[in-house]
């Protein structure tokens, strides 16, 4: 029982057959087949006005190449995609203590369910569902005087441009976010929020209202494909172990209660938002983002999901 | 926005620093720290008699190298690890039709819960929890006159040895498997089982009672690390796409209601059994199996989980 | 079928204004308005064949008067109404020890749900839902060599006629009772059934298949309106306290997950069955039974519920 | 505090054997056996300071007799007992339309659970659990410019004295009522609250903070024992049918998730509050109230529950 370790090549992402630019351009053409399906999020009035008939996609590789297609330069409300970034900041401050207040299991329930939160004494299932992200927002208030400034600074560091916040979306979220109010109060009732519900939700609603485009999001998420370091500068955003763990959370919990199906059909760590964006990583290789506003019943963009599925199928990129 | 696709090397499994043999031998030493924790499954009398103080581990690479340590040659009841093999056979016969009868989402509940099964009209959350595997056993009865013979033949093809079935465990499962009887009857009440409960459970209890050792299990699971082909012979067990999907299911659903934590801490597709074994894959590289009988409350072997965590940490092998 | 209204009027049941015979005859006329609503139980094939267009009603007062209307002499499958009688026998044997194995709370869930049973470790919410009655059947097997004989003897003692069992219904229940099999096995898995699932369900399915008519059921239930004694003979069936408690259970748990609405709209202790019968009591005054096969979604007879509501409204009989 | 037992005896409440004064005095002596069990509500700081070692009880008959014992004249925070009074006012204004927004089924869950509320789209199970009473408070804001003034006026009409509100309890509820905030926001998210969460909770917290003593509460609840009319004045508070229905709701839903057990052991319509009071009715006969601050885990006063059980046992008063 001896032997040598296999040479380090793998066949997990062998798509040299066509260039990535050809690949994304082809997807932009073929995605037309699913455009028109799903519907734009209407529970936040300011989101309901977005034109559903848009699609964009961008890739940023760990060695600094980037590719875009369609409306890859059009900004949109990143919504729940922000949860990965706030988690990144919170982990850096709190370390593993954070996991005493939020679990790392898929929920098996819709993103805004209170059922598990009650059964499990105010401890959210994971940091990528609403309750978990609200908890993370509370944790960020310990770490930063102005958590939103910290988030914007992180994004600026990674993209070179400080993003804007859509104040109309913020107002809209505040005026209609009763479910999030309910979750925050439920966690507060269990003693799992330290700051006031109003302060915590202010952070949460504002982080969701950050506006970015596909190109920027692919660039932002590239640190998760590069062992925690910003490609190019090699500045450390998080440790390699934490980058792996965030990827793991994205895979098991990043696409609401369709995370299993997403892993099954696409096979990449990803985080979706009800603004229609989905950011994903191919660890060791690249980050990518697809966007189209119309959502399936589960809250994931129909066309962005299909675009990522086509990408994985055609590039053979998969963590599996 | 142009560029070339990155060269195909990755850094996802760069552990040339020490040989895999040294790696597993080191784990066998260090695992002593957690031996004694957990307890042997006692709900099946025949399992309760196993000596808890055993540990074994084996690796089988896609290019045919193998490594073993500790009691890697000692046979044990594979229990739920068999679910991956029965799923493999059922997918080959039924194709995607199988997914009309069983979902692909993590359950978020204990492995033997009936709650979701009732709420979701007799459709199990995934094929790797008990209810799902019972459904797969029903599906196998459509595909094979003798599903157990088919399973044993598959294993024989992959290992060169036809395994035995522990008849005492079969009897013990039948005499005490009321929870599984309940699940099968509940699915039957929803019309989701075609065959009689007795016939289906006979298959299920017998597949769980197959006896294999770590070396054999590592060898068996190697097709899932090799795009569906048996290493060496390159015989196709399943298509590459299905191999990826089975790996995805193992990652999101393979370790009961701790799948999220396992992905977070270990980061590899894996399937555990209450016999104390856990089989895992590093897609493109190798399959491995660790075994130790004492279980945590979630039903996963304490020492085998830790062994896989140490393996991932030290080899830097991870899908993330 | 005539008689006079009992002289022991109280403020709770002051319907001297019209005779009880006129009252039930009027209900039989007015019930036509709801005939045709609902549908006959179809999950048991032998029940699905019953003509839906039948209605009967009968009253038996504690001083021995009786009144009937419509098809009050037509026999039907008593189904869950039998649960009150098996409970009566089990309480007499086990006393308060019975309440260690079954609770006395309304379930808030459908009659055949397994969810609470799992959450509450195999202890059914109350003895009048399926799981609870299966538990009671198990308890009866401790008390009687032949629990069915004991039940039939009790009925014979109260009515003067030994009822028959519809063997076709028994076979039908056994062939399709997977949900009940599931519940029994789940309780068995928690150690809350002492006898084999097969033996317990044989008792349960047979008790449900007893055939009685409205007149007999009103006569049978009269002991619960008479402080536990058979009117006339004054033979003690249960103690006064236990009679009160059984009435309480009927009120809070006797009409599946519509017990609250039934108490709200009708205001009498009652037990329904999917054969279309509902037996009820006006404690201190009378017992009554209405029957019509078509059921609402909750499993209660539409016309029998309405008949009892009209009875309570017009007689002003109510426990409230 | 003397009087004679009402002459309108019925078979359901035949306790002429001893006078009601002797009865309550005897209970006050015997209740010592359970004093010291349970603990004072501590989730509202202002309630936690109450001396646990107090007991009072009072009876008010429909013909105007009253009886008291122990600390029957000591005021306490009526808490959830207020839900019966707000429901009475809301029914008068909204009639049966109210039942489109709140159901009439027992919940089977703790009084402050959000689980059913989410599963059932923001429609509370019944008006006597927290969510239901918050809904009723919202409904009262349609009916009255100042719902609290309306409640206080109703009580003043029934007792001759306008009660006070404990402002310290109001502040305490507001500062710690995160669970109620969560429920109100959840209902708001489903569109089942018309007014702002802040306005609704202000009504709810203030109604809970009304201070009354046992004598007053027995007097207040007497209309529910008198077919909806105030004894003496015979002023109609609610119609006879609604009085019966409110009694039905108290019986099936009035003592949190122990309503089944309370019906089983006591057998009277009743409403408890975490201030330690329980008001009950013997329809047609009398209303009564017992109070002692220490609560069981279910939120019902241990000694007040036992006092009512002894009352029912010794007076033979029961609706069953």
Can you give a write-up of this model?
The structure is a homotetramer of 320-residue chains. By secondary structure, chain A is of the alpha+beta class. Chain A has one domain: DD-peptidase/beta-lactamase superfamily (Beta-lactamase). Chain A has 13 helices and 9 strands. In chain A, the strands form 3 sheets. In chain A, strands 3-2-8-7-6 form a 5-stranded antiparallel β-sheet. In chain A, strand 6 and strand 7 form a beta hairpin. The longest helix of chain A is centred in the middle third of the chain and has 14 residues. The two termini of chain A are 27 Å apart. Chains in contact: A-B, A-D, B-C, C-D. Chains A and B meet through strand 3, helix 11 and helix 12 of A and strand 3, helix 11 and helix 12 of B.
Task: Please render the helix and strand layout as text.
The structure is a homotetramer of 320-residue chains.
Chain A: H1 20-30, E1 39-40, H2 45-48, E2 56-61, E3 66-70, E4 76-77, H3 82-94, H4 115-119, H5 130-143, H6 147-159, H7 167-176, H8 178-189, H9 197-208, E5 211-212, H10 214-225, H11 240-253, H12 259-265, E6 270-272, E7 277-282, E8 286-291, E9 294-295, H13 302-315
Antiparallel strand pairs in A: 1-9, 2-3, 2-8, 4-5, 6-7, 7-8
Helix pairs in contact in A: 1-13, 3-5, 5-8, 5-9, 7-9, 11-12
